[in-house]
Design brief:
334 residues; alpha/beta; 15% strand; 8-stranded parallel β-barrel; globular
């Protein structure tokens, strides 16, 4: 029997309605400690700005808090939105993390701003053509983690020579092509934009060029999973994520809503269609349904690793969901 692929965890440090940001941070640390004990491979956090329901804006700082409270779990960004930053600053931040927690740090990079246009301006970054600089910025960042070259005028201290793994993240074909060209691992954001998943994986694998850090393609997909003791409870819990997507589309982002009994009292037919399309790569249900759903995704995609997102209002229900997923693996059912 082949060895099961690694399962990893994406955390946006959600702020449930009625909770504080500090409570969100403490819940994230608690989740990370449990994830480490359950056998999750990586624990990534994502950069978002001006969203009162997501507390992971200062991603590298929060990753330090999580790394300090765990021992073996790989900690990383999924991702840092590189257009918001200079490559040198990111190299120094993640070089610091790697120096403090050697062998445990990943740097996942995205090319979207992770926010709205007004917030982009507040981030003090240029709006014009900044995504066009993404390939150049990625290569600059790679250079800061490589061994220093003779006469190199600018070095990342700390960072230079640490060879921190860099991943490219995406929800389209762009990052798949760039990851293939640079010989980097690739992660696809199917948890909110699943439409091009299969095409992006094909492009990445077909165009991949070996690099000094990666000899063969390595692809990961991120999906939503909500597991509970029965299907009705899982679908009830899932309504928090559905509401969050509606609120974003209405331009009314806020704290993660409490689950509700009937989504039809909230969404219009067009909103329902849009949310169901965005979240269709989601596995929701009891152990049997989660087992079947995950097995189908693994068979269909052939990914080398699966990352799981779960925006769940109640912290104990969130812990239970992630624990059930790994219990299936312990029973060799996935």
């Amino acid at each position: 029997m082949s060895k099961p692929i690694p399962f990893s965890l994406l955390d946006l440090s959600p702020v449930p309605m009625g909770a504080t940001v500090r409570q969100a941070f403490d819940s994230s640390l608690d989740l990370a400690r449990h994830a480490e004990a359950w056998g999750y491979h990586r624990y990534w956090m994502a950069e978002h700005h001006n969203m009162t329901g997501i507390a992971s804006a200062a991603t590298s700082v929060l990753l330090g808090y999580i790394a300090a409270g765990t021992k073996t779990l790989r900690i990383g960004s999924g991702g840092v939105m590189l257009p918001n930053h200079s490559p040198l600053v990111i190299a120094e931040q993640f070089g610091t993390l790697e120096t403090l927690y050697p062998g445990r740090i990943d740097l996942g990079l995205g090319r979207a701003p992770g926010t709205d246009q007004r917030t982009m301006i507040a981030l003090r970054r240029h709006l014009a053509s900044q995504t066009d600089n993404f390939p150049r910025d990625v290569q600059e960042l790679l250079g800061y983690f490589d061994d220093a070259q003779p006469g190199q005028p600018v070095q990342a201290v700390p960072g230079q020579g640490l060879h921190i793994p860099i991943w490219l993240l995406g929800s389209s074909l762009y990052s798949a092509q760039l990851a293939a060209a640079l010989g980097l691992p690739f992660a696809f954001a199917a948890h909110f934009a699943p439409e091009l998943l299969m095409q992006a994986l094909d492009v990445y694998r077909q165009q991949f060029k070996p690099s000094p850090t990666l000899a063969t393609p390595y692809a990961m997909a991120c999906i939503n999973v909500v597991a509970a003791d029965n299907n009705a409870q899982a679908h009830f819990i899932f309504t928090s994520m559905q509401q969050q997507f509606i609120n974003l589309r209405r331009g009314q982002p806020g704290p993660l809503p409490a689950p509700i009994e009937n989504m039809d009292t909230l969404w219009s037919p067009s909103e329902r269609y849009g949310v169901e399309q965005a979240l269709r790569m989601s596995v929701v249900g009891d152990k049997d349904r989660v087992q079947a759903g995950l097995q189908k995704i693994l068979t269909d995609t052939g990914v080398d690793e699966l990352m799981i997102n779960g925006q769940i209002f109640d912290h104990q229900a969130r812990l239970h969901s992630f624990e059930l997923i790994m219990a299936l693996r312990a029973d060799s059912k996935i």
